[in-house]
Amino acid sequence: MLSKHSLDLLDLSRNDIKDAGLMYLTAQITKGAVIKRLNLSYNDLGVDGAIALAEAYGLNNKVTHLDLSWNRIYPTPGANFLIRTLGDNKSLRKLNLSWNALTVGIPLRKLLTVTTLKILDLSNNKLSTDAAKSIALRLPNATGLVTLNISNNPLRPADAFMILTALRQKAVKVQNLLMDNIVISKDFIAEKTAILKLSFRAKTHITHGPVTKNYTLSMPDMRLIVMKRIDFVSSRASKKCKVDIMLFFLSLQKTNEGPDIQIRLLYKHLVLAGVHVDIELIEEMANLFPGQPTDKGAKTVNLPGVVEYMSRLWPDKKLPPTPPPPPPPPPPPKGKSKKKK
Asked: Are 142 and 169 in contact (CB under 8 A)?
């Protein structure tokens, strides 16, 4: 029986005690047993075990070193309850929660108010932006924290940068910020260099993963995509009749009544020319080169807009000059009329 007794160290690691076995221990803690250094790693503990441990520590919260690594306490009810309860501890110095698939976020704020906590290992979990925000916000409150290990979590470069910038505050006492295998940005490197030059960061050690490239992403020009598509389709018209799509639109602009053409009519002209295009492509043209809607609100394609864009894509293409109109027929020869007597 451990109740009302104190142990400096109890190592139950790699015993596969599971949640059911842990209940015997938590019962003793509830009755008053004090175990300062407790190692429960590699025991297949789950949500029930986490809740039982939280309930026990809610009554008798005097552990100083707790190792719960390599378990399965990730379900939110158990993990959140346990971490919040440990946040009420007044003597906790070292906590290892690595390898638990934790997704916890906001409860970390409470945990980081424990001023006696010196080493916190959250590595190899599933922490994301919520966790990063909580850590960055509460690091100034963790006045005793020397080592924070958040390596091998699916944090974004922006999350890593957010946590790093907290080290600009003199109130943050962390000396070892470990973020191994977390991808960072080029801005992170510049910020890290600046932070390590601060007088109170002379002994600070920061690790991180590879630097991602700062790509400048631009939206594709949908007009170009549509034009390339319709040019490709027209080039695959019947072998006997290849259609030059720009010359088609140049000709249509000359013969159409007005600058705009309805979708269905344009589709019909293309099919008659041998270009079997999907009507959805014509509808997209109407979105990209909009003409005046019809009286009934139907979309139209602005032919001058299409031709102007095509002329920039294919500046060498032009309609052949219009042949001059044929000369008028010569007037009939005037015959000499005979006067009747």
From this structure: no
pLDDT, tens digit, 9 for 90 and up, residues 108-154: 999 999 999 999 999 999 999 999 999 999 999 999 999 999 999 99
Based on the number of CB atoms within 10 Å of its own CB, is 299 exposed (0-12), middle (13-18) or buried (19 or more)?
A: middle
Q: Please name the residues in contact with 329: beta carbons below 8 A apart, sequence gap of 6 or more.
A: none
Residue 119: name the closest of 172, 176, 163 by CA.
176
For residues 161 and 166, what is the distance between their CA atoms, to the nearest angstrom? 9
At 231, list the tokens.
Answer: 């040019």
Q: What angle do CA 164, 170, 176 make, to 5 degrees?
A: 50
Tell me the three state secondary structure of residue 339. Answer: coil
Give the full edge-to-edge strand order of the sheet including 94-96. Answer: 6-11, 34-39, 65-67, 94-96, 119-121, 147-149, 176-178, 205-207
**What pTM, to 2 d.p., does this model score?**
0.63
Q: Rounded CA gap, 276 and 278, in Å? A: 7
CATH topology of domain 222-313: Recoverin; domain 1 (1.10.238)
Spell out the domain ranges in the chain.
6-207, 222-313
138 vs 332, residue with greater confidence:
138
H/E stretch holding 34 reads strand 34-39
Strands 94-96 and 119-121: parallel
CATH number of 6-207: 3.80.10.10
* Cα–Cα distance measured from residue 98 to residue 335, given in angstroms and rounded to the nearest whole number: 116
CB neighbour class for 285 (10 Å; exposed up to 12, middle 13-18, buried from 19): buried
CB 319 within 8 A of CB 246: no
Q: Write the CB contacts of 120 (distance below 8 Å, at least 6 apart in sequence).
A: 94, 95, 97, 111, 112, 142, 145, 147, 148, 149
Report the alpha-carbon distance of residue 200 to residue 248 in Å, rounded: 72
Q: CA-to-CA distance for 307 and 24, rounded, in angstroms? A: 82
> Residue 341 burial by CB count (10 A; 0-12/13-18/19+): exposed, middle or buried?
exposed
Sign of torsion, CA 276 282 288 292? positive
58 and 31 Cβ atoms separated by less than 8 Å? no
